[in-house]
Design brief:
Protein name: RNA-directed DNA polymerase
Distance between the termini: 59 Å
Largest sheet: 5 strands, mixed
CATH topology of the largest domain: Nucleotidyltransferase, domain 5
Number of strands: 16
Radius of gyration: 39 Å
Keywords: Endonuclease, Hydrolase, Nuclease, Nucleotidyltransferase, RNA-directed DNA polymerase, Transferase
CATH class of the largest domain: Alpha Beta
CATH architecture of the largest domain: 2-Layer Sandwich
Strand content: 15-25%
EC number: 2.7.7.49
Helix content: 25-40%
Enzyme class: transferase
Number of helices: 15
GO biological process, one term: DNA integration
CATH superfamily of the largest domain: Ribonuclease H-like superfamily/Ribonuclease H
Amino acid sequence: MLYGRKFTLQTDHKPLVAIFGSKNGIPIYSASRLQRWALILTNYDFDIQYINTKSFGQADVLSRLIDEYPRPTEDILIANISTDTECYINSIFNSVLEPLPVMATEIAEETDKDPILSAVKKCINQGWPRKNEDQQLAAFHPKRDAISEIEGCLIYGQRMIIPKSLQSRILKTLHIAHPGIVRMKAIAKEHVYWPGIGKEIEKLVHQCEQCQGASKTPAKTLLTPWLAPNEVFERVHVDFAGPCSDGYTYLLFVDAFSKWPEVCKMHPITAKDTVEVLQSIVYRLGIPKEIVSDNGRQFRSHEFSSFCKEFGIKHTFTPPYHPMSNGQVERFVDTFKRSMKKCGQKKNWIEETLLAYRTTPHASLNGHSPDELFLGRHMRTKINLVHPEGQKISSNIDKEKFKKFQQAHQQKMSKQFNTKHGSKLSKFRPGEPVYLLNYRLNKTEWLSGTIIEQVKNSPTYRVKSPSYWTRRPPACKSIEEATPN
């Protein structure tokens, strides 16, 4: 009714008039508060006018015209409260009291009710025994010189010793903003103490769904390398790279034994096109025994499954959202993308990149090149022209010696990885409750689940939550069993 109209505002509260006047003599905090009120009132067009309280009857008329009335007689009801009703009232009282902060007076009262702390107070007043024989005092006897009593409360150093009945409330107070274990312990060391508080803090954080749902990924699990293959095409790895800067996606194919790569431009990248590209490689180079891929829709399609059955190929999936498990091809993906940045303007840059990669000695191949292991000979390149015609470049590979080198090289790389990342071995039991990472719907969160089984010859586990998923230990962590406080 007042918005958009000019009106006169009458008040008997004189400080309000000063909102539109000088602020001289008004304390800073008062001026700030008045200015905030004034900011709200700027939406209205009005003049403010002070009226003395004696002449200000318009607003006070209702309170001034109240007649005296007789006080009604009160009925006094005497009732007996049953035990059940009393318990119910106590439960309501406790539920209301639970979120309230713990005060020193309450700690003093509960300390007197606590049998262990009462015994500690008695020892403080009457003297500690030289040798403790009471198991209840075993946790306090070594600290007896640092324990004192102030106003009925026990203090260890500067920390209040909390009786058993208040410990759960103190833990909730410490965890009110969901800090981690380290921060909670740091706060506790400043203020409160009871035997075993550190372990109870750890248990509380591990059992807190909000903390576990937003926690970081645990330490990486120990790197488990693939078994070194004995021959060419015993195992190959495939993956997609792209869309790249040229707008295309490429299918990359790497032999695990020789590191021999193949690259095929894809557009579109349907399951049918993927199968056709792999068929062309198979018809040209032969049939691999095993293909390793991620969980992309092309590789999980009926067409790809039929292709593997037709050619007798074993198909192995890597754990979801864990590209490191397909490291053989992932390393070449990085090499391929870097080469595109450097040479992508050339017409035949893909062919040049493949030729250079295939003929370059690799440290992981003990100084041999992919072509030497894959073809059994060195491919002739432009650099070979520096040699005279009569000079022969031999290729002698001792396969047994080479296999031993591969195994030693893998162990060395695994050790370096585990040391760098602080990796540790994670073991779970069937039926064990766990948290597992959910990468779906473009977000990362921890969900509760149950271990079903460990995949054979793999560090991967099958987990139920809410459907059957496969997860590696870094995306899986234990839930500590809840025990009553």
